[in-house]
Design brief:
heterotrimer, A mainly alpha, B alpha/beta, C alpha/beta, B: alpha/beta, Glutathione S-transferase Yfyf (Class Pi), Chain A, domain 2, Rossmann fold, 2 domains, 4-stranded parallel sheet, 8 strands, 12% strand, globular, C: alpha/beta, FAD/NAD(P)-binding domain, Alpha-Beta Plaits, 5-stranded parallel sheet, 28% helix
C-alpha cells in the first residue's frame, strides 16, 4: 500500500480511526448487520477493503458516508475487532474538515424542524455532518 | 437507605424531553435517591466522537465527569445518548493515554482527569443500587396486565465492552424493570436495532423505515407499549414510525405511574 | 586441568549470517584449558561429528563445548558421538548460539560478542564437569487413558492389541464420547453408531482393558514408567457387577422430567438412566440430583423392581489407586455454547440450534426418531440456514470467541446440507461461509457434491441478525459476491459453533504437569516431529485435546499415541537422568525443607550414625535422595539452607562458574 499515491490519505484515515484494516477476514458480518445497507452505495465491508486498497477518493465522494447511523452494530458484531463504523467516521471527518465542506449548514435547519424534534437530533447531526 | 448522585440531565431533557427528566426526579424522591444536578453542565454533543484525533468534541463530557469526581459522587445519566457519549469519553480518559494527555493539557485541571468517575445510567441505579426487588416493594400502582416492550436501541448497550450494562444481544435490564413495576415484558427481536437516529433530519424515509421495523417487531409479539430512555428514539418511533395500538413512552413515565408520583 | 575442544557450528546461514563464527572460534581458543577450537558448516552432520571425534582422539580431549542450536535439538547427538570416542557423555556442553543469539539479534558485532560469552560460560562449566553414569528405573507395564471417546477408545484398543494392560477413565456413565451422538460421518456418510459401537464392544470384551466409567482422575504422582494415580469412582448408586442392564428401572422410574443431555435436552430421561442403547458398560446410573429417593428418602421403586438387587442408595464414592507406566490424555471437546452470539438468536429462538443439536434431530435414535422436525412446533422445516464459523476465527482480543479455525465445521455442515437435501428435496438449504476449508482425502469432492449434485446454496457472506416473528426466523445476511443484503425467511437456523477443549482438561493438565496453550489445548513436545507426546515424559496426547480434528484424524493420532505408549511399555528398564540431586550428609541439618518442596516424593529422612570425636557415635537425622525417583528439577537445592543438597551436572559451583564467566569481561 505504501506505493499508493493516496498513501498519505490512507495514513490519515487509519490514524484518525485507529482501525487496523489488515485484521479484516472478509466475512461480511458488518454488511450483514448494517441497518443502513439499502441507503448505501458502498457497504461497511467495502469501506474496509477500499481503505486498504487506497481508494479514499471514491469513498469521500460517495454519499454513503452520510448514511451511517453510528449505531455501532458493525463494531459490536465484527469478530475481528475491525470496527468499520470508525473508518466511516474518519472518512467523513476528512471531508468536513476541509474548508466549506460542511454537509449540513445552519441555514438548512429551520426547514427541517418540527415542533417535536428533539435538540439531540440537531446536535448530533451537526456533530456528524459539520465542523 | 439514602443514595446521593451527581446527575447530568442533558439539553433535550430541559426542552423537548422534560417528561423523561421530571418523572425520573419524582421517582427518585420516592425511592430515596438524591439526584443532584451538576452545576454548569454543557451539552455532551449527543454523539460520541469516534475519531482518535478529536479532542475538542470530548471536552464537555470530560468537564462533567471531572465535576462529579471533585464532588466525590457517581455520575448518573438518563438520556441514552448522553450516557453513551459520557461513558465512552470516560473510557477514553481511562484507557487512551494519548487522548487523556491532550485533554488534560487543554483543560489544565488541578488534578489531571484519568477516568475516575463511575458513570451510571438511571436504569443501573434502579437495578444495582436500589434493586428491582426493593423497587417492586415500593410500587403502589402495579401496571398489571400491561404488555410492554423494552426498546434499547443502540446507545445503551453498544459498544458492550465499554457500556458494560448488559448482554448487548440479549439484554434483560429493562425487562426486569418492567417486571418490577408489575407489567409483563415483551421480548422482540428488533429491540436493540437502530431507529434511524439523527438521519431523520435529512432522510425522513430512512428513519420511518427503521422505526417501523422496530415497532412492527414489538407489535407482532403483542406489545401495547414500548419504552425507551432516549428522546430521539421516542421521536423517531412516534413521529416517523407510528404504529396503531402501540404507544411509545419514556420508561420513567411508567416508573412514576407505578410509584404513584405521576 | 581439562583438555577442552570447542566446536562452532554455522548451522548453514542460521548462525553464520549473524554471528562471526571464525571470530568466536578464535576468541574461545584462548580460554584456559582449550586445546582445540574450530568452526564447521553443520556440526550435527555425519562429517561434523567425525570432525569432533577425530579431534577428541588427536588432542586427547577430556571435555567438549559445542556452540550450536538448543540442547533440546542436538545435545544427545553430540554426547553420543563423544561417547563413541570413550568420553563420558556428560563431559559435553552445549552453548546455544542459535535460539539465544543468531535468531534474536540483528547486529553482527553484538551477536558475536554474546556468542563468545555463552561459549566462555560453557567452557567454565566443563572445567567442573564430572563423568556421570545414568541409573535405571523399572517400567510399570500398564497404561492409563483419560477419556473414553473415539480417541481414547482407539488408543486403548491399540495398546491392548500389543499385549499391554490399559485402563480407561471416563467421567460419563458410558464410553463413546461425542461420536456416539453423531448421526452420519463424512466423507463417506456411514452411520457413526454402526462404526463406533463395535469398537465400544471390543473395548468391553478385551481382557486387557478395564473401564472406569463415571470416574475421574483424582491425583497423579510419580514419573515416566512409574505413575501412581488415584481414580475416583463416583457413586452411581448401582452395583456395576450386579446390574444386568435390563433397563427395567429406567422405564419405570417415576421421575420423568430430567433433561436428556445425550439428546441435547430435546427430550427427557428418568432419574435412573442408561444414556443410550449401546452404552458401555451397559449399567444404569442414578442421577442423585434428580432422584426422589435420594432427595427425600421416599420412593425406592427401582430397588423394588430390580431383580438383580443392584440398586444401592448408600453407595459412596470410591478411591482406587493404580500404577501406570504411561498416561494418555484423550479429554476431547465440547461445542462452544453460542450464547455470546445472541444476534443469531440462540438464547431467544428455539429454532436456532447448534450443529451438534442438529445431529440429534437427524439421528434415528434421537428425540424425533430421525425425522427432521424443528424444536418449536415439531414441523418439518422447509428453509434452513447454516451459519459457519460461529465463535471460531475471532480476533484474539474478541472475548466472544476463539482465535482458531475449528477445522471440522465446513465438512460437517456440507454433510448436514447434503443429508437434508437427500432426504427432503423440498427443503431449501443455505450455507453462509467465510471460506470453505476442505483439506483432506475426498473432502473437497464431498463439498462440491453438496453444491453440484444436491443444490445446496453456498453464499459467501455472514448472517448479521436472526429474529423470530410468527414462527418464522427472519434472517438478515450479506451476500458479498452479489453485493446484496439478503432477507431470508427461514424455519430453522443451524450454527456451526467452535469446538473448545473439555473443561476438565485444565485440571488434568495440572495433575499431569503437562503444558497447555492459551486455548487450553495440550501442547505437543514438537509441533511437527513429536505431535503425540507432551513435553512431560510419559504423557501422550490423543484426539481433540491437542487441537481441533475430525474423526479420521483423531483415529490416526490415537493410534500414533498408542504406538508411542507401546514403545515405552515394551522396555523393561528406562535409563534415568543421572543429573539428580544428592545430599552431603555431613552438611545436612535435617530440617526437611527439601522433602517439603520435592514434587516427586524422592527425598526421605532417616537417622544415621556418625562418628563423633573421641570414638563417640552421634545419631543425626539426614536426607537421602531416591535417584530413581528424582527428576533433577533442582527445587531442593534452592530450598536447602545449609548447602547440603546439590544437583549432579548442575552443581552450585558449576552454575556459579558459568555466571562468573558471563560477568567477567
Amino acid at each position: 500500500m505504501s506505493h499508493n499515491k493516496n498513501a498519505a490519505a490512507v495514513e490519515q484515515i487509519l490514524r484518525s480511526s485507529g482501525v487496523d484494516v489488515r485484521k479484516c477476514m472478509r466475512c461480511g458480518k458488518c454488511t450483514a448487520t448494517c441497518p443502513a445497507f439499502d441507503e448505501m452505495e458502498y457497504h461497511p465491508h467495502q469501506f474496509v477493503y477500499m481503505v486498504e486498497k487506497g481508494q479514499i477518493d471514491k469513498l469521500t465522494a460517495s454519499p454513503s458516508i452520510w448514511r451511517c447511523l453510528s449505531c455501532f452494530a458493525c463494531m459490536e458484531r465484527c469478530p475481528r475487532q475491525v470496527e468499520p463504523a470508525k473508518l466511516i467516521e474518519a472518512v467523513r471527518l476528512s471531508v468536513i474538515r476541509e474548508k466549506g465542506a460542511n454537509h449540513l449548514k445552519p441555514e438548512d435547519i429551520p426547514a427541517m424542524l418540527d415542533e417535536d424534534l428533539p435538540q439531540q437530533a440537531i446536535a448530533s447531526a451537526f456533530r456528524k455532518y459539520s465542523k | 437507605m439514602h443514595m446521593k448522585f451527581s446527575y447530568y440531565p442533558g439539553c433535550t431533557l430541559k426542552t423537548k424531553a422534560k417528561d423523561l427528566d421530571a418523572y425520573a426526579r419524582a421517582s427518585a424522591v420516592a425511592l430515596g435517591v438524591d439526584l443532584c444536578e451538576l452545576p454548569e453542565w454543557q451539552c455532551c454533543g449527543a454523539v460520541y466522537p469516534m475519531a482518535k484525533d478529536e479532542i475538542a468534541t470530548k471536552l464537555s463530557a470530560v468537564r462533567a465527569l471531572m465535576n462529579a469526581r471533585d464532588l466525590g459522587t457517581d455520575l448518573v445519566t438518563l438520556c441514552s445518548a448522553c450516557h453513551n457519549v459520557i461513558k465512552q469519553v470516560n473510557n477514553d480518559m481511562k484507557t487512551d493515554a494519548d487522548i487523556a494527555l491532550r485533554v488534560n493539557n487543554y483543560i489544565k485541571p488541578e488534578t489531571p482527569y484519568a477516568g475516575e468517575t463511575n458513570v451510571l445510567h438511571f436504569l443501573e441505579v434502579l437495578r444495582d443500587r436500589v434493586g428491582f426487588d426493593e423497587l417492586k416493594k415500593k410500587v403502589v400502582n402495579p401496571l398489571t396486565g400491561r404488555k410492554i416492550g423494552a426498546y434499547y436501541g443502540c446507545l445503551l448497550l453498544r459498544p458492550s465492552k465499554v457500556m458494560a450494562m448488559d448482554d448487548p444481544e440479549n439484554p434483560t435490564i429493562i425487562e426486569d424493570f418492567i417486571r418490577a413495576i408489575g407489567a409483563e415484558p415483551v421480548v422482540y427481536g428488533m429491540r436493540n436495532e437502530c431507529c434511524g437516529g439523527y438521519v431523520t433530519l435529512e432522510n425522513k424515509d430512512e428513519a420511518k423505515k427503521r422505526s417501523n421495523i422496530v415497532l412492527e417487531s414489538a407489535k407482532v409479539k403483542g406489545a401495547d407499549t414500548v419504552v425507551t430512555a432516549c428522546p430521539l428514539c421516542l421521536y423517531n418511533l412516534k413521529k416517523n414510525g407510528g404504529c396503531e395500538g402501540v404507544d411509545v413512552v419514556y420508561f420513567t413515565e411508567l416508573l412514576a405511574e407505578a410509584l404513584g408520583v405521576k | 586441568m581439562q583438555r577442552i575442544g570447542v566446536f562452532i557450528c554455522h548451522c548453514g546461514t542460521n548462525i553464520a549470517a549473524t554471528v562471526d563464527v571464525k571470530a568466536v572460534a578464535e576468541a574461545l581458543s584462548h580460554e584456559p584449558g582449550v586445546v582445540f577450537s574450530t568452526d564447521y558448516q553443520y556440526m550435527c552432520s555425519e562429517s561434523g561429528q567425525t570432525l569432533m571425534r577425530e579431534a577428541i582422539r588427536e588432542h586427547k580431549l577430556t571435555g567438549v563445548v559445542v556452540c550450536s542450536c538448543s540442547p533440546r535439538m542436538h545435545e544427545a547427538t553430540f554426547r553420543k558421538a563423544a561417547e563413541k570416542e570413550g568420553l563420558n557423555p556428560y563431559m559435553v556442553e552445549i552453548a546455544n548460539i542459535r535460539e539465544q543469539v543468531s535468531w534474536i539479534h540483528k547486529d553482527m558485532a553484538e551477536a558475536t560478542e554474546k556468542a563468545v560469552i555463552l561459549g566462555r560460560a560453557a567452557i567454565a562449566k566443563v572445567h567442573l564437569n564430572k563423568p556421570l553414569k545414568a541409573g535405571e528405573s523399572p517400567v510399570t507395564k500398564r497404561a492409563l487413558v483419560i477419556g473414553g471417546g473415539i480417541a481414547g477408545i482407539q488408543t486403548a484398543l491399540d495398546i491392548a492389541e500389543a499385549g499391554f494392560e490399559v485402563d480407561i477413565v471416563e467421567k460419563q456413565p458410558t464410553i463413546g464420547g461425542k461420536m456416539a451422538q453423531i448421526d452420519k460421518t463424512f466423507p463417506t456418510l456411514d452411520c457413526a453408531a454402526c462404526i463406533l459401537t463395535p469398537k465400544m464392544v471390543d473395548v468391553a470384551q478385551n481382557e486387557k482393558i478395564k473401564i472406569f466409567s463415571y470416574s475421574e482422575v483424582e491425583s497423579v504422582k510419580g514419573f515416566v514408567g512409574n505413575f501412581k494415580v488415584e481414580i475416583r469412582k463416583k457413586a452411581r448408586y448401582v452395583d456395576e457387577d450386579k446390574c444386568t442392564g435390563c433397563g427395567l428401572c429406567t422405564e419405570k422410574c417415576p421421575q420423568k422430567k430430567v433433561p436428556n443431555e445425550f439428546n441435547m435436552g430435546f427430550d427427557t430421561r428418568r432419574a435412573v438412566y442408561i444414556p443410550f442403547a449401546q452404552a458401555v458398560p451397559k449399567v444404569a446410573t442414578i442421577d442423585a440430583n434428580n432422584c426422589t429417593m435420594m432427595k427425600t428418602g421416599k420412593c425406592g421403586l427401582c430397588a423394588k423392581l430390580c431383580t438383580a438387587g443392584a440398586i444401592d442408595y448408600k453407595q459412596q464414592d470410591q478411591i482406587v489407586e493404580r500404577e501406570y507406566g504411561a498416561i494418555v490424555a484423550a479429554t476431547g471437546f465440547n461445542p462452544l455454547k453460542p450464547d455470546k452470539f445472541n444476534e443469531l438468536g440462540y438464547s431467544t429462538c428455539q429454532d436456532v440450534v447448534t450443529s451438534l443439536e442438529l445431529e440429534r434431530l437427524m439421528n434415528a435414535a434421537g428425540p424425533t426418531a430421525g425425522t427432521l422436525l424443528r424444536p418449536s412446533d415439531k414441523t418439518h422445516p422447509h428453509t434452513i440456514v447454516f451459519v459457519q464459523c460461529v465463535g471460531s476465527r475471532c480476533d484474539v482480543e474478541n472475548e466472544r470467541g476463539k482465535s482458531y479455525c475449528s477445522k471440522i465445521c465446513c465438512m460437517y455442515t456440507a454433510k448436514h446440507a447434503m443429508l437434508i437435501r437427500e432426504k427432503y428435496p423440498d427443503t431449501d438449504v443455505y450455507v453462509f461461509y467465510i471460506d470453505v476449508r476442505t483439506p483432506g482425502k475426498n473432502f473437497d469432492e464431498f463439498y462440491r457434491r453438496a453444491v453440484e449434485q444436491y443444490g445446496v446454496h453456498y453464499i459467501k457472506g455472514q448472517v448479521g441478525k436472526v429474529v423470530e416473528e410468527n414462527g418464522t426466523l427472519k434472517v438478515q445476511a450479506s451476500d458479498l459476491l452479489s453485493g446484496e443484503q439478503l432477507h431470508i425467511d427461514a424455519d430453522l437456523v443451524v450454527l456451526a459453533t467452535a469446538v473448545e477443549p473439555d473443561k476438565s482438561a485444565r485440571s488434568i493438565a495440572t495433575m499431569l504437569t503437562a503444558s497447555m496453550d492459551t486455548n487450553d489445548f495440550f501442547t505437543e513436545a514438537h509441533a511437527k516431529l513429536r505431535p503425540v507426546e507432551s513435553p512431560t515424559a510419559g504423557i501422550f496426547l490423543s484426539g481433540v485435546c491437542q487441537g481441533p480434528k475430525d474423526i479420521p484424524e483423531t483415529v490416526s493420532q490415537a493410534s500414533a499415541a498408542a504406538a508411542k505408549v507401546i514403545g515405552l511399555l515394551a522396555k523393561d528398564k528406562l535409563t534415568c537422568n543421572p543429573c539428580v540431586a544428592n545430599s552431603n550428609e555431613m552438611l545436612c541439618n535435617g530440617c526437611s525443607s527439601c522433602e517439603k518442596v520435592c514434587p516427586y516424593g524422592a527425598i526421605t529422612y532417616s537417622d544415621k550414625e556418625f562418628r563423633g570425636p573421641n570414638r563417640t557415635t552421634l545419631i543425626r537425622r539426614v536426607a537421602t535422595v531416591n535417584e530413581a525417583v528424582c527428576q533433577g528439577c533442582g527445587a531442593c537445592t534452592v530450598a536447602c539452607p545449609s548447602g547440603a543438597m546439590d544437583l549432579k551436572g548442575f552443581s552450585n559451583r558449576q552454575i556459579m562458574a558459568e555466571v562468573d564467566a558471563i560477568c567477567k569481561m
